[in-house]
Amino acid sequence: xxxxxxxxxxxxxxxxxxxxxxxxxxxxxxxxxxxxxxxxxxxxxxxxxxxxxxxxxxxxxxxxxxxxxxxxxxxxxxxxxxxxxxxxxxxxxxxxxxxxxxxxxxxxxxxxxxxxxxxxxxxxxxxxxxxxxxxxxxxxxxxxxxxxxxxxxxxxxxxxxxxxxxxxxxxxxxxxxxxxxxxxxxxxxxxxxxxxxxxxxxxxxxxxxxxxxxxxxxxxxxxxxxxxxxxxxxxxxxxxxxxxxxxxxxxxxxxxxxxxxxxxxxxxxxxxxxxxxxxxxxxxxxxxxxxxxxxxxxxxxxxxxxxxxxxxxxxxxxxxxxxxxxxxxxxxxxxxxxxxxxxxxxxxxxxxxxxxxxxxxxxxxxxxxxxxxxxxxxxxxxxxxxxxxxxxxxxxx
Length: 397
Known about the structure:
Layout: E1 5-6, H1 61-65, E2 66-75, E3 78-85, E4 91-98, H2 101-118, E5 127-133, E6 136-141, E7 146-147, H3 148-154, H4 160-179, E8 182-183, E9 192-194, E10 200-202, E11 209-210, H5 239-255, H6 263-269, E12 273-274, H7 276-279, H8 285-294, H9 305-309, H10 312-324, H11 330-356, H12 362-371, H13 380-384
Parallel strand pairs: 1-12
Antiparallel strand pairs: 2-3, 3-4, 4-6, 5-6, 7-9, 8-11, 9-10
């Protein structure tokens, strides 16, 4: 194997105050204002506020169908709640994401449709249901124990087998996603969750992208973990982008390092430099060699998820892990079966609106709707009936 140059990274365990520092709380997220847009023609549709509309007395579906709401996450994306489903009396998670206007809504629906396709793998957080209401996208998902970030914070001296477990489980998830021609683009400790079935699961598909579709601008993931070929302005997504990000995540986990988000050390880590001397004696040479492969600068030299899973050192540990893992949680299976029909109905409804309403041209859509109420082949009852999709009615008023 090619010998990489050494780079020195600061160690978290040498900072006595690090474990006492709690992650800084993000700014309080507030609900967005009702959709409001001016058009060239001068027509200005303004959605009514909740207090003034006819369904103001109806509770949000979040409170209508769930109880025991406990906030377990918050960030720029919105909020995550742990809730109890009233019908099944089982616990799950509900993520509330901002939907700022119709363009952001369309992108959110597209990402959601991709998430639904890939969420069937056991190492991916299950999608149970989704709906749009009150200017936000609600995603009902599998509830997990904690994130990998919290797991790292809780364990000062991380045992090596945890790093192998994360590697194997997330490689399985990435291999499945990549086989469907998608790339995650945001692999990092916050987006890896430990499930109640002791599996590590990939979460947060807000940046997932179809590699067969070329676009002018693609959002990149966290600077600490992104691959050297991934640019902020424009780049062609590749499945091996995720391999580098997972390698950086495992490096941070195995060495308990502070990863730089810029500067000279950031560039060194993306020029085939590696903290070999700092890892020696803390982890096995086998793990170091695999991390070397995952963090190759040239994408051609970097192995794919499938190649890594078939690598002799990884394959042996994968077979050992499969023997001790319990079967998938019965709670997860019940939720999937219980919500299967609801999820499909909601996704089909949102997809019909996206495909047939010409949302890319709002002015033409509003004009066509005013001239012909049947332009979408959707009845008024179908639009207004589902309480969990009440916000869609604003597009028709």
